[in-house]
Design brief:
Helix content is about 30%, strand content about 30%. With about 700 residues, the protein is α+β, with helices and mostly antiparallel strands. The chain folds into five domains: about 60 residues, Arc Repressor Mutant, subunit A, CATH 1.10.10.10; about 60 residues, Nucleic acid-binding proteins (OB fold (Dihydrolipoamide Acetyltransferase, E2P), Beta Barrel); about 70 residues, OB fold (Dihydrolipoamide Acetyltransferase, E2P), CATH 2.40.50; about 290 residues, no CATH class; about 80 residues, Nucleic acid-binding proteins (OB fold (Dihydrolipoamide Acetyltransferase, E2P), Beta Barrel), CATH 2.40.50.140. Helix 1 crosses helix 3, helix 11 packs across helix 12 and helix 13 packs antiparallel against helix 15.
């Protein structure tokens, strides 16, 4: 092969895969060249030539990638509440480009755009201007109807749709002022309404109905509501009962004392547990996980849809499942008294909680009891009840594991969640912190241990084999420095080391039970990196684990399903060229799964805000104790107790003085009276304004 042919092959291969980078030997394999000898030497020389000619570039010092045009980039546009844009680029190294609202070129939220970079910068972000709209994937928008005289207007939610739209008379007659609706726009959106063809496709509900606002949130965030027909066809072919022929190929645990422990309203039972203690005092712990991979085959329509969704989404009043309910709530779910296929992690532990041995096997179980967390907690507290002795052994082991994990460096954040009570119309009548029970910790400990064993087990088949890990990077040193400064200002001294999770845990133990605990927990979490999925194992800083994966929730998380498939293939000896997923494929799936997880968390958080605002709507004028959990130049954010509702006290409403913002102290300081409001301070506030649609609650300080 001559040099010109090789050049063309390299440029074609890297150009088609411009988001990825490859080692020299990976390129040789992909292009069909030997990994040594004359042709391999020619490949290395050709790569260096192409680099010198600026056609390709080194990535991470060891890999090659196509040289990208840095003056123009492509990405997805997000428009902020202030109307400015942020474009997340579609590149190997993702960048965020700031776009001033004057440079949006008629683009709107969700568009795929081409951006030309500008020489100026906006703070830390590069700045650019939209020069082309490449794709407009989302054409439906949520908002409310405004009737003015004989005209009907559509006002989109969240100010991300930059234009008011006149609704045609035929549709306008079907709706009322204030209705929450979905409008479809068929043509490109410009400042000229002549190019629009709006149509009301659904009326979600009346203004002020929180259920309608949750529906609008689902549409606004483009969350999947229905499964495609092709997917549902595939589900109908899945047998509901476990076949005897399949049972014969597995370890039969149907006579074992196995049960599930879940929330009261749960239907998708991913995991079950079992335990026995031998004569020497060793624990034999079983964590049995629904064998979803048996039913969801790689590359099927169902698998592709599960990958697209990435995760189940748990909104305040409904679940958007990753898998159809026929699977998630029935065929795969580990229901009481029904034979179910499982993938089990069977561990032997010392009385001190050390894992002495483990095996991971395909099994079949029959759950003996569907426990709720509250039922197991009652057994823990009283010592009486069905399976009481087994629960006692589980609780003893779980407490031992917790102590050991914390001692080894896990950070134990105590972050509170809320739960709602509703009236018959679906409106929230109360909101309270969720109680964190020991029964919940029990299950958490067992799942954490199983996930560790699975990640470590891959080493048995070869340390370089492709795998999907759950990783958490070390915190940024600058953020840790800012955290230490903040703690110093509120009178808490702690030695924090960005390389040591133990130092963070010692600090949290120091403030446990103090008035500052909740705020320090939240501020510390903000200083941390986000946990993500990755094909590269860098460990999990927050948990203090060197190896960690997600294996225990394949009904609701796609990465767990991937890990099941990979592990089973490796157990079958497929560790050579026939690996189930390449490192590059896992890189793409990891990035997508992490993005879908972030979207799900945002949707869940926004649905909570809707219900909190709806709850506060009936509390206008009432006063609450609150803790300051955020301070900015325009005011301070507070969280009411005990309802944990967030809201803003605007600085313009603090009229007893002129307050200036001190960013280092994270405080507002009165210019004349020198009164200080800072993170962690307790204040009394009155509910001044509530906007359920915008999910906003405003307070004013209340001085008796």
């Amino acid at each position: 092969m001559n040099n010109q042919t090789m050049r063309a092959a390299i440029l074609s291969f890297l150009g088609e895969r411009y988001r990825n980078a490859y080692k020299t030997k990976e390129l040789a394999k992909a292009l069909g060249y030997p990994k040594q000898g004359e042709q391999y030497h020619l490949l290395k020389e050709t790569l260096r030539e192409l680099q010198e000619e600026n056609h390709i570039e080194r990535i991470d010092s060891r890999k090659w990638g196509i040289k990208l045009d840095t003056d123009e980039v492509e990405g997805t546009l997000e428009i902020s509440q202030q109307g400015h844009g942020f474009v997340e680029t579609h590149e190997r190294d993702v960048r965020t480009i700031f776009v001033h609202r004057k440079n949006l070129f008629e683009a709107h939220h969700g568009d795929v755009v081409k951006v030309s970079l500008l020489p100026e910068r906006n703070g830390r972000n590069e700045e650019g201007e939209v020069i082309e709209i490449l794709d407009r994937p989302k054409r439906q928008f949520t908002g409310k109807i405004k009737k003015i005289h004989d005209k009907v207007f559509f006002e989109a939610d969240n100010d991300r749709f930059q234009h008011d739209i006149v609704i045609p008379k035929r549709d306008g007659e079907k709706v009322h002022n204030g209705d929450k609706v979905i409008v479809e726009v068929k043509e490109s959106i410009t400042r000229s309404e002549r190019n629009l063809s709006p149509r009301i496709v659904e009326v979600l509900g009346k203004e002020g109905d929180p259920m309608a606002d949750v529906k609008a949130l689902i549409r606004e965030m483009n969350l999947p509501e229905r499964f495609p027909k092709e997917v549902m066809k595939g589900v109908q072919t899945v047998p509901e009962a476990v076949l005897e022929s399949e049972i014969q190929t597995r370890v039969d645990l149907r006579n074992e004392e196995v049960f599930t422990i879940d929330p009261v309203d749960a239907k998708d039972f991913d995991d079950a547990v079992s335990i026995r203690v031998d004569e020497a005092g060793y624990y034999h712990l079983g964590v049995h996980i629904a064998d979803v991979s048996h039913y969801v085959t790689k590359g099927s329509a169902l698998d592709k849809e599960a990958l697209t969704r990435g995760t189940s989404i748990y909104l305040v009043n409904q679940v958007i499942p990753m898998l159809p309910e026929e699977l998630s709530n029935n065929i795969c779910s580990l229901r009481e008294g029904v034979d179910r296929l499982t993938y089990s992690v069977l561990m032997k532990l010392s009385p001190q909680g050390a894992v002495m041995d483990y095996s991971i096997q395909k099994t079949v179980i029959n759950s003996k009891k569907r426990f709720t967390y509250q039922e197991v907690q009652a057994i823990i507290d009283s010592g009486d009840g069905k399976h009481a002795e087994t629960v006692r052994h589980m609780n003893t082991l779980a407490k031992t594991l917790t102590r050991k994990r914390i001692s080894d460096g896990s950070i134990d954040f105590d972050l509170q969640e809320v739960e709602f009570q509703y009236d018959e119309t679906g409106r929230p009548v109360d909101v309270r912190p969720k109680q964190r029970l020991q029964s919940m910790r029990l299950v958490e400990e067992f799942m954490l241990l199983a996930n560790q064993c699975v990640a470590k087990s891959v080493l048995e088949y070869g340390g370089e084999l492709p795998f999907m890990y759950r990783v958490h990077d070390k915190p940024d040193a600058e953020k840790v420095k800012e955290l230490k400064e903040f703690m110093k200002h509120i009178g808490v001294r702690a030695s924090l080391n960005p390389q040591s999770s133990k130092s963070f845990q010692r600090m949290l133990e120091k403030v446990r039970g103090t008035p500052e605990e909740a705020v320090i927990n939240n501020v510390t979490v903000r200083s941390m990196a986000k946990a993500v999925y990755s094909e590269k194992n860098i460990g999990h800083f927050g948990l203090g684990f060197t190896h960690y994966s997600h294996f225990t929730s394949p009904i609701r998380r796609y990465p767990d399903l991937i890990v099941h498939r990979i592990l089973w293939e490796y157990q079958q000896g497929k560790t050579g060229k026939a690996v189930p997923y390449s490192a590059d494929t896992l890189k793409d799936i990891s990035a997508h799964s992490s993005a879908q997880e972030r979207a799900a968390v945002e949707a869940e958080r926004e649905s909570v805000k809707i219900m909190q605002a709806a709850f506060m709507e009936s509390k206008l004028g009432e006063t609450f104790e609150a803790i300051i959990n955020g301070v900015v130049s325009y005011g301070m954010y507070v969280e009411t107790l005990p309802h944990l509702v967030d809201g803003l006290v605007h600085v313009r409403d603090m009229d007893d003085d002129y307050y200036e913002f001190d960013p280092k102290k994270r405080a507002l300081i009165g210019k004349r009276k020198h009164r200080v409001y800072q993170l962690g301070d307790m204040v009394r506030v009155k509910v001044a304004r509530v906007d359920v649609q915008e999910r906003e609650v405003d307070f004013i300080l209340y001085d008796e």
